[in-house]
């Protein structure tokens, strides 16, 4: 649906809320009868190996920084599942999704949840077809298995998506709390710097300053001015 995503994912704030684009067709399409929803019992499409939660006191989302590679967190030799969110802090749709996604690790403690800033990981965005954010992919090991395509991004629709894909039921007592609105994924829009515009302004200012200082030298570059100077 148009207007439910920000894009392109690899660009800066100039392509943010003012230039929203609809999410494109998923790279991993599913048959029509396998869309997100709770209508009827369906066999899970991804057989996930549930992780051992013994000794884990706090189930939370992990956000990758600019120096961390997603593939380092995905084990290609494992069948465990990870839900990965591609977002940008300047996209209002990413911000509205944040508290719901922050609550997911408590609802599914046996799964892993990661998030990364798509504008800082442009190569990954290209690799997995992330042309608009927010974009959610379900990985089994290091292989993307399904993409969340629901336009209503809430805790309930996310739980339905995970259940339909993996057969793993969410904990019923989990709800979005005030702490989920605070983090770890930011729910408040951040204003970034348009580096292209800043560079253009600095370049123009430098050129004007140079032209002002070197006015006499520039006059000699104009045809006919040398004769006027000699007279």
Characterise this structure.
The structure is a single chain. With 231 residues, the protein is α/β, with parallel strands linked by helices. The protein has helices at 92-107, 122-127, 155-166, 178-182, 195-213, 215-219, 225-230, and strands spanning 62-64, 81-87, 112-117, 135-140, 143-147. The chain is built from seven helices and five strands, in the order E-E-H-E-H-E-E-H-H-H-H-H. The chain has a domain at 62-182: Glutaredoxin, CATH 3.40.30.
Sequence stretches where pLDDT stays below 50 over 5 or more residues: 14-27, 29-40
- Structural class of the helices, strands and pairings? alpha/beta
How far the N terminus sits from the C terminus, by CA atoms, comes to 72 Å
* Radius of gyration over C-alpha positions, nearest whole angstrom: 25 Å
How many strand elements? Answer: 5
Tell me, what's the shape? elongated
Q: Indicate the CATH topology of the domain at 62-182.
A: Glutaredoxin
The level of helicity is 25-40%
- Major β-sheet profile: 5 strands, mixed
**Residue-averaged pLDDT, rounded?**
77
The H-and-E topology, N to C, reads as EEHEHEEHHHHH
CATH architecture of the domain at 62-182: 3-Layer(aba) Sandwich
CATH class assignment of the domain at 62-182: Alpha Beta
What's the name of the CATH homologous superfamily of the domain at 62-182? Glutaredoxin
**How would you classify the quaternary structure?**
single chain
Beta-strand content: 5-15%
Instruction: Trace the largest sheet across and list its strands.
Output: 1-3-2-4-5
Count the DSSP helices: 7
């Amino acid at each position: 649906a148009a207007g439910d995503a920000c894009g392109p994912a690899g660009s800066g704030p100039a392509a943010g809320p003012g230039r929203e684009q609809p999410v494109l067709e998923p790279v991993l399409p599913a048959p029509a009868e396998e869309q997100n929803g709770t209508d009827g019992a369906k066999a899970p499409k991804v057989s996930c190996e549930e992780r051992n939660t013994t000794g884990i006191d706090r189930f939370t989302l992990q956000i990758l920084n600019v120096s961390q590679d997603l593939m380092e967190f995905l084990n290609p030799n494992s069948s465990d599942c990870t839900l990965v969110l591609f977002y940008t802090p300047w996209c209002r749709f990413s911000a509205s999704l944040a508290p719901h996604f922050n609550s997911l690790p408590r609802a599914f403690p046996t799964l892993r949840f990661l998030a990364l800033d798509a504008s800082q990981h442009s190569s990954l965005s290209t690799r997995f077809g992330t042309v608009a954010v927010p974009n959610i992919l379900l990985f089994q090991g290091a292989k993307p298995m399904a993409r969340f395509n629901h336009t209503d991004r809430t805790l309930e629709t996310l739980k339905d998506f995970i259940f339909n894909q993996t057969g793993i039921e969410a904990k019923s007592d989990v709800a979005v709390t005030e702490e989920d609105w605070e983090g770890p994924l930011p729910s408040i829009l951040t204003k970034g710097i348009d580096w292209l515009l800043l560079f253009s302004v600095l370049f123009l200012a430098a050129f004007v300053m140079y032209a002002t200082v070197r006015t006499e030298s520039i006059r000699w570059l104009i045809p006919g001015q040398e004769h006027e100077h000699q007279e």
